[in-house]
Amino acid sequence: MSRAVVFFAEGTEECEALVVVDLLRRAKVEVTVASASGSLQVTGSHKTTIIADALAEDVDYSAVDLVVLPGGIPGTPNLAANAAVTGAVKALAADGRKVAAICAAPSILADLGLLEGRKATAHAAFQDKLAGAQVLDQEVVVDDNITTSYGLGGAIPFALELVRQLAGPEEAARIQKAIAYKHSLLYKSHR
């Protein structure tokens, strides 16, 4: 069974995080919601409070296949300020494991030097912060082990792409049909 960690900080865009959690869990991926806020209780950007499964610093990342950085303000800077989050992202990327970010959060990947020479996307207000990347104006961009999306409007295709990567195209298609998502999910992997 594949394992994923979805980070959640104070001010995270709730839907960008929870759509990913929901669809990955539908695909039988073991998902840990990890708080980057020092408390299991975390409040998102629109005042929705969730209870995380673990603190980011308490997660064993050695067997994790994917880490996900949702966007939101001030969620993105709060994620970037958490050493456990940035350490896990760098470690997984260095190992060739999967890293994904949506909305403002791809800027964290750029700050860590992970987008250098890669194709990526982010929310329009953050595309200029993707230093070193070739920025594409697409819902979802996959470049090797890095997946990025431009924001809440891309949360479903972003999550379905992560399902495809961890559970296969048939499972992604099954979930797409089950949730009545009618749009095409043909994203080209770059590299």
If you had to describe this structure to a student in words, what would you say it looks like?
With 191 residues, the chain is an alpha/beta fold. It has an eight-stranded mixed sheet, sandwiched between helices. Strands 3-4 form a two-stranded antiparallel sheet. The chain has a two-stranded parallel ribbon with strand order 8-9. The radius of gyration is 15 Å and the shape is globular. The model has no long low-confidence stretch (mean pLDDT 95). Helix 1 packs parallel to helix 5 (155-167) and helix 5 (155-167) runs antiparallel to helix 6 (169-178). The chain has helices spanning 14-26, 75-80, 83-94, 106-111, 155-167, 169-178; strands at 3-8, 30-35, 41-43, 49-51, 54-55, 66-69, 98-102, 119-120, 134-135, 140-143, 146-149, 189-190.
Keywords summarizing the entry:
eight-stranded mixed β-sheet; two-stranded antiparallel ribbon; 191 residues; 12 strands; single chain; alpha/beta
Briefly characterize the structure:
Helix content is 31%, strand content 23%.
